[in-house]
Amino acid sequence: MAQHTLEVLVENSPGVLARVAGLFSRRAYNIERLTVGPTANPEVSQMDIVVSVEGHALEQVIAQLDKLINVISIKEIKQESAPEVHDTQPDYQN
Amino acid sequence: MSQVTGAQSLVNSLEAAGVDVMFGIPGGAILPAYDPIFDSKIRHILVRHEQGAGHAATGYAQVTGRVGVCIATSGPGATNLVTPLADAAMDSVPMVAITGQVPSLAIGTDAFQEADIRGITMPFAKHNYLITDPADIPRAIAEAFHIASTGRPGPVLVDIAKDALQKMTDFKYPTSVNLKGYQPRLEPNAQAIADAAALITQSSKPIFYVGGGVIKADAHRELLEIANLLGAPVVTTLMARGAFPDSHPLHLGMPGMHGTVAAVTALQKADLLITLGARFDDRVTGKLSTFAQNAKVIHCDVDPAEIHKNRFADVPVIGDLKHTLQALIPELRAALKKHQPDLSEWLRQMNSLKSSYPLGYDQPADGSLSPQYVIERLGKISGPDTIFTSGVGQHQMWAAQFISYENPRTWLNSGGLGTMGYAVPAAMGAKVGAPDTTVWAIDGDGCFQMTNQELVTCALNNIPVKIAIINNESLGMVRQWQTLFYEGRYSNTSLDSKRVPNFPMLAEAMGCVGLSCERPEDVDATIEKAMSINDQPVVVDFRVHRDAMVWPMVAAGTSNDDIMIARETAPDWDSQEL
Q1: Secondary structure (H, E, C), B294-343
Q2: Spatial separation of the C-alpha atoms in residues B389 and B382, rounded to whole Å
Q3: Over its length of 578 residues, how does chain B's per-residue pLDDT go in tens digits?
C-alpha cells in the first residue's frame, strides 16, 4: 500500500490527539507515523500523519478527518512535487 | 454586568438558543443547574431513565426539525445517554445533551459518579465539550446548537464540571458562531449540477434512491417536483419513509433487506441511481460488490465523507439537499427540453413487478391474530396524519411496510443503530413536539420491556401517546433468523408468555389505560377505542401469532438479486421481462 503524508492543522485544544487517533482506530486506517508539534500560532498545532492506504481510501481518510470540528485544514505532502491542498471542504468534482 | 452562577449562565444560554423543552433527570454533579431550571420558562420533563430522555429528545427533534435537548448528571446518568447519542449519530438527528461532571479538581481521580463521558462519546458524537471554566459555557452551548443543527445534523454533548456550574461568571451569549474547522458546504457546485442533469438525460433506467437526508433537509416538495418532472421511479429507504407519498404512482416502496421486490430490483437493474441523502447502507445494498452493478451514481449529500465511502459516485454533489434540488430542477428542465429520454419501457417493467409482487402476508391458519393485519389496520384507521414510532425488529419492518406514509416526519424509528426500546420514549418526545397530532408507538413485546417506564412520565405529564404492543412472546426477528439460518433452534428468543407480564395491568399500574386484543374481529373496535381516549396514554396488547415472518428478505451478506418473497421462494424471474 502506498504511504501518504498528511499535514493536519488542528485547534490546540484538549483531547484533539485522542479525536484524531480514535478516528484512525475505529475506521481501521493504518497510521505509520504520527507527530504533533506547535505552530507559530499558539492556538493551532500541527500533526504530521503518515498513512498507508490505496486510491479512494485516502479521500475517505481526509474526508473523515475533516469532519472533526477541531481539524482546520489538511494538506497532502507529495514527494518531489508541490503539496496538494485539501481545504476543509474537499472538492470531489470531476 | 451583574454576575451569575455558571448554572444560571447555562440556563440563560439554553433559553437564548431557543430551547422550549428538555428531558432529563437531576443528580449530584448537575444539581446546581436544576436550581435555575426551577425558575426557567423552559419546560423540563422529568423522565424515569436517562435513555428515555435521550430518545425523547430524538423523537422531539425528528418531528419538529428542531434540536432535541436532554440533560443528565455525571457517571451513570451520562453513560445512560450513550445509546441515544449513538442512535442520534447513526440517524443524523440534531440533539444536544448536557451532562454534569465531577468538580474539575476531582476529574481523573475516579471520584464518585465520575465517567469520562467526553471520551466515551468521542467516537460517535458529532462533537463534544468538557467545560471547566464557567466563562466558556455560553460559547459552548451556542456552538453545540450550531453544530448539531447544521450540515449533516447530529448529537453534541456538553459536559460541565460541577464547580463551573457553581462559580460566578458574566453571562454573554455569542451573537455568532465562527468555527475555523467547521463550515458545512450548503451550496452545490454549479458544474456538478450541470453534470448531474446531463447524466440524467442520458439515462434510460434512472431511479431516485431517496434517504433520510431528504426529510432532514425539508426537501420533500422539491423531491416531488423533480420526480414528476423526470417521471422516474422512486424508492424510499427505511429512514426516508414519508419523504415521498406512498400513494404516488412512481413510488416502488422501500428497498433493502425487507424491501419490496420492485424497489430492490429497480435498484439492481437501474442504469442510474439519483441518490438523495442516502448512504449506501449495507441493509440497502446487500452484498456491495453485486449492488446495482450497471448503474452510474449521482450522489447528493451534505456530508462530503459519504461520497465514495461505500460506492463510487460518478457525479458527487455536495450540499444541502434542498439547495441542491432547487438548483437541479431548472437545470434538468432545460436539459430535458433538448433531450427527453424515453422511460416508458423501464416504468412498464417496474410497474409490472410492483403489481406482480405486492407486499402481502398469510392469515394464520388457526384463526389467531396476524401482526401484519394489526399494523395495517392501525395505519388505515389512524390515517396519514398520524405520527408512528417503532422499536426494532419484525414489528418495525411491518410498520415500515404495511402503513402508508404520505407525509415527512410521520415515521420515526431507529434505522442505523437499531435500538430496541426506541419506540416508547421517542413517541413521548414526538407527542411533546406535536401535541395536537395522534402519536402511535408500534412496539414489540421485547422492546417494550426495555423502556416502558417512560409511560409513567407520559401519564404524569399529560403526554397521551398510544402504544400498540405487537406481542408475539418472542424476540421475533432473531427468532426468524433462527428459523431460517439455525435450523429452528430457538436459543433464548422465547419470552415465554403472552401473559407475563400482564401488559394491560402494567399499563394501568403506570397510569395508562390498558387494553388487549387477540381476535382478528376485535382489532378495529380496539383501535377505535384507543383512538377515542385522548386524556391518558393508552397501551394495547395485541396478542399475535408467533411464527409470522417478515418478507421479502435479502439475507444478510447476500446479493439483492437473491431476494426471497417467502421461505425458499424467489420471484418468478422468467415471467418478467427485465
Answers
A1: CCEEEEEECCHHHCCCCCCCCEEEECCHHHHHHHHHHHHHHHHHHCCCCC
A2: 13
A3: 689 999 999 999 999 999 999 999 999 999 999 999 999 999 999 999 999 999 999 999 999 999 999 999 999 999 999 999 999 999 999 999 999 999 999 999 999 999 999 999 999 999 999 999 999 999 999 999 999 999 999 999 999 999 999 999 999 999 999 999 999 999 999 999 999 999 999 999 999 999 999 999 999 999 999 999 999 999 999 999 999 999 999 999 999 999 999 999 999 999 999 999 999 999 999 999 999 999 999 999 999 999 999 999 999 999 999 999 999 999 999 999 999 999 999 999 999 999 999 999 999 989 999 999 999 999 999 999 999 999 999 999 999 999 999 999 999 999 999 999 999 999 999 999 999 999 999 999 999 999 999 999 999 999 999 999 999 999 999 999 999 999 999 999 999 988 899 999 999 999 999 999 999 999 999 999 999 999 999 999 999 999 999 999 999 999 999 999 999 899 999 888 77
Based on the number of CB atoms within 10 Å of its own CB, is B471 exposed (0-12), middle (13-18) or buried (19 or more)?
A: buried
| Rounded Cα–Cα distance for residues A16 and B241 (Å) | 38
Looking at the complex, does the CB of residue B312 fall below 8 Å from at least one CB of chain A? yes
Q: Do A89 and B318 touch (CB under 8 A)?
A: yes
Q: Angle, to 10 degrees, between the axis of helix B394-402 and the axis of helix B476-485?
A: 100
- B182, B296, B297, B314: best to mutate for the A interface, most A CBs within 10 A: B182
What CATH code is assigned to B3-170?
3.40.50.970
Q: What dihedral do alpha carbons B430, B431, B437, B442 form, nearest 10°?
A: 70
- Say which residue the cell 384507543 belongs to: B530
Query: How far apart are the CA of A82 and the nearest CA of chain B, in angstroms?
Result: 23
The CATH architecture of the domain made up of B190-356 is: 3-Layer(aba) Sandwich (3.40)
Distance from the A79 Cα atom to the nearest Cα atom in chain B, whole angstroms = 25
As a whole number of angstroms, the distance between CA B78 and CA B24 comes to: 11
For the record, the C-alpha cell of B132 comes out as: 471547566
Query: CB distance from A1 to chain B under 8 Å?
Result: no
State the ipTM, two decimals. 0.91
- What is the DSSP code string of B497-509? -SSSS-HHHHHHH
Can you tell me whether residue B259 is helix, strand or coil?
coil
What residue spans define the domains of chain B? 3-170, 190-356, 371-543
Q: In the CATH scheme, what is the code of domain B371-543? A: 3.40.50.970
User: For chain A, which domains are there?
Assistant: 3-86 (3.30.70.260)
Q: Tell me the HSE value of B319 on the side-chain side, using a 13 A CA sphere.
A: 22
Active site residues of B: 50, 112-113, 162, 477
